[in-house]
Amino acid sequence: MQINAALSAVSGGNALKQAVGIALLSQMKDSQTAQAATLLQDFAAAQHPNLGKNLDIRI
């Protein structure tokens, strides 16, 4: 989906195009939010379970 096309439809004078553009922008926002949440969950799952809990110092 092209965000520029959706934005131009929202700013246009046609009410139907505005409604469709707003719906598309909402869907894109929801999709990007879901993708970001999945990315963060995957990142958290990939971390080592003991990361930050132990400190090894040798002199």
N-to-C terminal Cα separation, in Å? 57 Å
Mean pLDDT: 82
Strand residues, percent: under 5%
Radius of gyration: 22 Å
Largest sheet at a glance? none
Low-confidence stretches: none
State the gist of this model.
This protein is an all-alpha fold and 59 residues long. The protein has helices spanning 3-11, 15-46. α1 (3-11) runs antiparallel to α2.
Topology:
Layout: H1 3-11, H2 15-46
Helix pairs in contact: 1-2
Pfam family, one: YjfB_motility
Protein name: YjfB family protein
InterPro entries: YjfB_motility
What does this structure look like?
The protein is an all-alpha fold. It has helices spanning 3-11, 15-46. Helix 1 runs antiparallel to helix 2. The termini are far apart. This is YjfB family protein. It holds the Pfam family YjfB_motility. InterPro entries: YjfB_motility.
Relevant terms:
59 residues, mainly alpha, 69% helix, YjfB family protein
